[in-house]
């Protein structure tokens, strides 16, 4: 986990096991059948519904809610999964408050939208207990390599398999799921849901999984893949962590937030996971909030998020910001890190206040320090290792149309590709659309 040498203030077992279980319980418990019926009754079933437009995967939201209302949750799930094969995970982790629910007519009229996310979970959870609803078309004889078993890769592989192609998925980790398995707060996906969803998805057949296979290592190159397969889809995510560019960031106790979240997701016993007494998280996105909230839930006494701009500029939604505040996390804005200093116990992080001048940040000269047994870097990730020949834009793989890269036979989608937001639901849409383009290209 980054620089994993711990400072003296970082210890395990700050809270008893029963309190940890309560802290990491399901953030949004599933709706009971009668609750789902009441929630579905609030939908106006709008013509040209704005919630559909706001959904990156264009799910027919009024239709699936009407199907729930009429007592057909499995039919509702099929409506969802036709567009978003990872609809169960997206129901749990999508920032619905800034997507479909923000666009909901009842949000505009009453300030209380239809609970689209929870209704989606109600429907897809019902389907997960049933047989896989999709079947493969006749074998095409085409073989496609999908690199990265995260949301984009899984969505691409499933759609290709539906069309009758054979898919081989390569992933660098020992488990599939990508950020769904390693990068999302534990209280959002309890009960090992990420793995259950992947196992359910693979019931389509025609998908072979190869784990601990790193692109660029052991002969697994883009050149070898394009030589062996009819097409290649890259859904490798962003494996690098941006630097703070602050003196002392290589000190013990300065870690990347993504690794902390991954360790927390994989640990068997939360009592054994060390956490600091004083924790500082630098960044303003969902990863920053997840790291901060979970530090607090593990028993940290003070947890502070520090972001260089105003709260309105944070990429974490207002709901996520309020969630952090409700757990006792302090948010300091308009401050950027200068250095990490040695302190009597642990570290101190020195910050300087900033102000905006025409969109540009200017230091004010006013400085302050925060004690920190642990410092988590959450200022974004970067593409880690780029195969030769791929054109980049903005530090990501340049794509046009439905994920076409600068190389023939190679498509890309998800966080590693240029374009949409770094969201699970966007990655699913890009993987799905790339699969359709690959299918049309191979069969035309």
Give an overview of the whole structure:
The longest helix has 20 residues, at 424-443. By secondary structure, this protein is an alpha/beta fold. The protein is built from 17 helices and 19 strands. The chain is globular, with a radius of gyration of 22 Å. It is 35% helix and 19% strand. The strands form 6 sheets. A 5-stranded parallel β-sheet has the order 4-3-2-5-19, with helices on both faces. A 5-stranded parallel β-sheet has the order 7-15-9-10-11. The protein folds into 3 domains: 10-25 and 241-377, FAD/NAD(P)-binding domain; 33-128, Orthogonal Bundle (Fumarate Reductase Iron-sulfur Protein, Chain B, domain 2); 143-239 and 383-443, FAD/NAD(P)-binding domain (3-Layer(bba) Sandwich).
List the helices and strands and how they pair.
Elements: E1 10-11, H1 17-23, H2 33-41, H3 50-54, H4 61-69, H5 73-83, H6 87-93, H7 100-103, H8 105-110, H9 116-128, E2 143-147, H10 151-162, E3 166-170, H11 179-182, H12 193-201, E4 207-210, H13 222-228, E5 231-234, E6 240-241, E7 254-256, H14 257-266, E8 275-276, E9 278-282, H15 286-297, E10 302-306, H16 318-326, E11 330-332, E12 335-342, E13 347-357, E14 360-372, E15 374-377, E16 381-382, E17 392-393, E18 396-397, E19 410-412, H17 424-443
Parallel strand pairs: 2-3, 2-5, 3-4, 5-19, 7-15, 9-10, 9-15, 10-11
Antiparallel strand pairs: 1-8, 6-16, 12-13, 13-14, 17-18
Helix pairs in contact: 2-4, 4-5, 4-9, 5-9, 6-9, 10-17, 14-15, 15-16
């Amino acid at each position: 986990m980054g620089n994993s040498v711990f400072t003296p203030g970082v210890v395990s077992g700050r809270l008893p096991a029963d309190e940890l279980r309560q802290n990491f319980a399901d953030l949004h418990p599933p709706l009971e059948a009668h609750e789902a019926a009441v929630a579905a009754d609030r939908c106006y079933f709008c013509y040209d519904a704005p919630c559909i437009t706001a959904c990156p995967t264009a799910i027919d939201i009024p239709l699936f809610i009407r199907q729930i209302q009429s007592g057909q949750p499995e039919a509702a799930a099929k409506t969802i999964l036709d567009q978003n094969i990872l609809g169960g995970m997206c129901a749990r982790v999508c920032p619905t408050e800034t997507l479909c629910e923000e666009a909901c007519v009842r949000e505009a009229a009453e300030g209380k939208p239809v609970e689209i996310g929870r209704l989606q979970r109600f429907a897809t959870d019902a389907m997960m207990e049933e047989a896989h609803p999709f079947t493969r078309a006749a074998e095409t004889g085409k073989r496609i390599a999908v690199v990265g078993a995260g949301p984009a890769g899984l969505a691409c592989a499933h759609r290709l398999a539906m069309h009758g192609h054979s898919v081989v998925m390569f992933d660098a980790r020992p488990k599939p799921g990508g950020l769904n398995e390693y990068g999302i707060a534990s209280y959002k996906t309890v009960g090992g849901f990420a793995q259950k969803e992947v196992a359910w998805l693979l019931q389509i057949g025609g998908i072979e999984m190869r784990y601990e296979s790193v692109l660029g290592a052991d002969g697994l190159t883009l050149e070898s893949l394009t030589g062996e397969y009819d097409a290649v889809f890259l859904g490798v995510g962003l494996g690098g962590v941006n630097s703070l560019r602050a003196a002392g960031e290589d000190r013990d106790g300065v870690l990347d937030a993504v690794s902390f979240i991954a360790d927390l997701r994989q640990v068997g016993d939360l009592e054994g996971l060390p956490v600091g007494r004083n924790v500082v998280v630098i960044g303003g996105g969902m990863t920053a909030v997840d790291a901060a909230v979970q530090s607090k839930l593990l028993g940290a006494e003070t947890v502070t998020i520090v972001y260089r701009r105003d709260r309105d500029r944070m990429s974490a939604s207002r709901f996520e910001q309020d969630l952090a505040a409700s757990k006792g996390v302090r948010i300091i804005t308009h401050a950027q890190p200068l250095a990490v200093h040695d302190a009597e116990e642990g570290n101190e992080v020195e910050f300087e206040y900033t102000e905006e001048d025409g969109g540009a940040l200017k230091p004010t000269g006013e400085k302050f320090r925060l004690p920190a047994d642990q410092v988590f870097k959450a200022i974004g990730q970067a593409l880690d290792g780029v195969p030769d020949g791929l054109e980049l834009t903005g530090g990501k793989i340049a794509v046009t149309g439905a994920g076409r890269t600068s190389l023939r036979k190679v498509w890309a989608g998800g966080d590693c590709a240029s374009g949409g937001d770094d969201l699970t639901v966007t990655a699913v849409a890009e993987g799905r659309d790339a699969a359709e383009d690959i299918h049309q290209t191979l069969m035309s």
